[in-house]
Amino acid sequence: MVKLNVLNLEKSEYKGGKSSLCPGCGHDQISNIIIQAAWENGIKPEGIAKMSGIGCSSKTPAYFLAKSHGFNTVHGRMPSVTTGANMVNKDLSFIAVSGDGDTASIGIGQFIHAIRRNLDMVYIIENNGVYGLTKGQYSATVEKGSKKKKGTANEQAPIDLCAMAVNLGCTFVARSFSGSKKQLTALLRAAMSHRGMAIIDVISPCVTFANNDESYRSYNYVKTNDEVLHIVDYIPHFSPLSEVEVPEGEFSDISLFDGSTLRLETVSDDHDPRDAVAALRAIHEATQEGRHVTGLLYYNPDQPTATDTLGLSDTPLMGLSEAELRPSAESLKEVNAGFRAR
Amino acid sequence: MDKIINDFTINVATANGTGSQSANLIILHSLFEMGVPVSGKNLFPSNISGLPTWFIIRASDRGYQAPGDETNIQIMMNKDTWEKDLASLDSGTIIIYNEDAKLPVDRDDCTCLGMPMTSMARGISPKMARLMANMYYVGGIAHLLGIEEDAISSAVEQQFRGKENAISMNLQAISEARSYASENWGDVCKFAAVSRDKSSDTFLIEGNEAVALGCIYGGINMLSWYPITPSSSVAESIINWIPKLREDGDGGSTCAVVQAEDELAAAGMVLGAGWAGGRGMTCTSGPGISLMSEFIGLFYFAEVPGVIWDINRTGPSTGLPTRTQQGDLSMCYEASHGDTQHIVLIPGTVDECFEFGWRAFDYAERFQTLVFGFGDLDLGMNRWSTSGFEYPSQDMDRGKVIRTQEEMDSIPNFGRYRDVDGDGIAHRTLPGSGLAPILYRGTGHDEDGIYSEDPQVYYEAMQRLKRKIDGSRDILPAPVIREEDEGEVGIIFYGSMENSIVEIDDLLEERGMSVSTCRVRALPYHSEVEQFIERHDRVVVMEINRDGQLYGILRKELPTHLISKLFSVAYSDGLPPKAREYANRVIEVLEG
Fold this sequence. Notes:
heterodimer
């Protein structure tokens, strides 16, 4: 029997076109997880807007959610287009895909300002440390000492996008790995249930230019150096918590905006995602040891979003009628009279 | 003495940030109150305090609004420019100067009238003396020209609205100065201001505020902006008017405002708003357009509606940030890489600033493209007369947006970029609607919006885009033509040059030329522009830039047989156009 989600939709309703990325690309796995997460969460495909910039990762919105509108914009500037669309239609669910070149170099300013505004969106960074489409130049997130397939090792210090996001007060910051299907699915589902800016920095190996063992972002390297903060389990709002099996070890629950829950099961030490300093320490310590810390790093709910602070009409602005948008002829007479009296 | 009535130019030389703007506006408004046709130009520096600034007031019964070619009354308040200001004056100029500057006024060929303005002001308020000193030249001017007391009072009240103390102190200063001038200067001025019937409807307003109101009445949904002179007051005016005019019944705003991190982001937000079905706008100046150019190409190629107002300042680069120019015309028309072409609306009056403010959104949605509003510092930041804005004469044009499945079913062979109506304009659907979703892109795409590098698909897409924008020509505002029967000389001009054209025309007629004029109000240019050129033997294209940008556009697009009729008069020094300068250049190119 075909499986249906809460909207009685098959998973095929969430699929996209055929990928043109290199076979085995981590990005394709992420696309599959986006499909899975949106389907499992029961989000209406037509209510989603897929956003991206330019690069290998930014091509992927063509490969998932074919029933959603999307915009493959320009390099590094997807956040501003998303901001404009959000301003006139705050009911859309924005799921954005970007890369490390798109976000950490050319688009770092727009990335920062989207966080600052707490733009209500899911922002996935498919982070492989190289520019794939232009044939393998290092990006700004690659670790010092990491070496791609050809050429010399990278000598410059990396930009850690999660650490930066935590510092900026981003309301949901997570890191994951394209090869960790369970973890990434749970984090992505939680990000979709969040209201505000949710960033997931996903290490996604570039199979063509940097999947050699000397690369800190190769499949093997990440598999053996993954510092898992906690086991994550997503419990949707439509599955009552009381019916979910309670784990044997210690755990804590995070309540999400739509009533869903993210359950964090302790692996070794506790990590309190509401503690920004703990998040920065976890990132810093892992980096010192050449490891990647994954999980929900930081969570700061109930912050006003970009549109909340503007006192906008309840109706999305794009849905207002001419009568609501154009002031009356009488009002213009008053405006003119006001100037004459000045 | 026989007086020259309502025909004079006053130049006030002060320093920025010394409060002279209030004094200057009081002179301007008091003349306006008397019904004297008057215009004012603020030549200010890129600075908050200290650098020299000049304010030019022109009174003219003939309605001339260009800054006068010579100064009749010079007011000297700025020590830094004292010598240069003095040296630039023609013989016979009336000079009013602040004696407290303690600088020589060695112009025996002029009428030199001193007043200890700062010390007199100290008598009213020692703390405010520097600011108040300016009111003393107001009083001096009022005496010389015979500006009525009532007009002065009303202008002062308007300037310091509600601040009773300021009103009475400033009125006292003006009155003291008037008495001083009457006792010490006597009747030495050959110019006079005389009341005219003033239409009770008229008022003065800056072009930028008119644009802002036009946007408000055009249903703007989202304003994104990054501060830049001289466009910031467009955004600030919109922000000011939203609570008064654009709140729904529950007090919710129907227009979002975002101060962007830079101009690139501001343009991206307009694109996002337009894509999602809203009316987005940003305002900027030349440097901003340079930065926005990447997105401008995406607007064009992905066919997303949006509006950008470019309030021109003097380029290139940072240029002269507080001076005027028509230097961005060719850039706006063809901004971004590859073959592009954008609709440009060019208002020449504050009434048109308002009208094109609302129309820009209609054109953007109708043609699914970016529309530029093209203003400049002169029109945007100086005050011009209007008898009141006219309510939009047409309902909003939301363009070919498919909102229901029924509408979708009625279109045979729908594709986002398929031209089913033959006008180059395809139908679009909006995100959130679930109707015919596609992934918009700046990469090559076929008629269904699917990625394509096919040569024929690309070629045809670009031809359709050309056809689409070309189809806007005769729908956009037609030129304003003032035609003589003779058909000898035609002048084509645009934008704020409107304020100088009557005087230029009169100067040329004095030289025996019969001149028709044609003010272009949009690009791509209307077919009537071409017909105007057909009807005239020689046509001068007159504009405020170095290279003759409209001249270049016309040469590129006109039929070959018309090109040899064209002459270019292009001149720019950062200042608003003076009539005689341009008239002389016209004569030079035609007779040269």
